[in-house]
């Protein structure tokens, strides 16, 4: 079973089936098999599986090593399997803002990219709260940020793209 996850849009791709989240609740879901730290859920999905019928899938991220896992459950929430997830689901943006690190420098040469400093502050303030903007700037510059505010901001990325035609990827 091939799993990919887009952390920006919370879309899970299982064997070519794109699954939108039905919930973005954050809960402790277990321990990471790589480093034994806590796994925190980042999205919940449902799909029909030919073997088990209705399947519930919880995507969780390790708060230590940042690995992403999908936990497969049947319709009654009985655990079936854990799958390590690749987080490289690509999208085709109009304009893409990427954080300042080596990976994004390579990526920005392939895709049209906009620096966050080039976006008028009024546009950002129209969608994001001051704390969300603080988290966005911190993450963009490679600094520590409050994850809760960054997750809230990421939920608004599609609204920002719809209003201004700029896709944020921070």
Automatic annotation (TrEMBL):
Record protein name field: Uncharacterized protein
Lineage summary: Archaea, Methanobacteriati, Methanobacteriota, Stenosarchaea group, Methanomicrobia
Superkingdom, taxonomy of origin: Archaea
């Amino acid at each position: 079973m091939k799993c990919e996850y887009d952390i920006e849009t919370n879309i899970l791709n299982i064997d070519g089936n794109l699954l939108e989240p039905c919930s973005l609740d954050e809960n402790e879901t277990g321990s990471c098999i790589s480093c034994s730290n806590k796994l925190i859920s980042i999205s919940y999905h449902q799909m029909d599986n030919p073997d088990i019928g209705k399947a519930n899938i919880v995507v969780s991220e390790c708060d230590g090593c940042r690995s992403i896992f999908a936990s497969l459950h049947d319709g009654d929430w009985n655990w079936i399997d854990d799958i390590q997830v690749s987080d490289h689901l690509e999208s085709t943006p109009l304009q893409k803002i990427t954080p300042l690190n080596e990976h994004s420098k390579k990526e920005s040469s392939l895709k049209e990219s906009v620096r966050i400093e080039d976006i008028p502050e009024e546009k950002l303030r129209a969608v994001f709260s001051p704390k969300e903007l603080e988290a966005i700037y911190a993450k963009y510059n490679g600094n520590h940020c409050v994850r809760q505010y960054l997750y809230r901001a990421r939920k608004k990325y599609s609204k920002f793209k719809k209003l201004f035609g700029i896709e944020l990827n921070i």
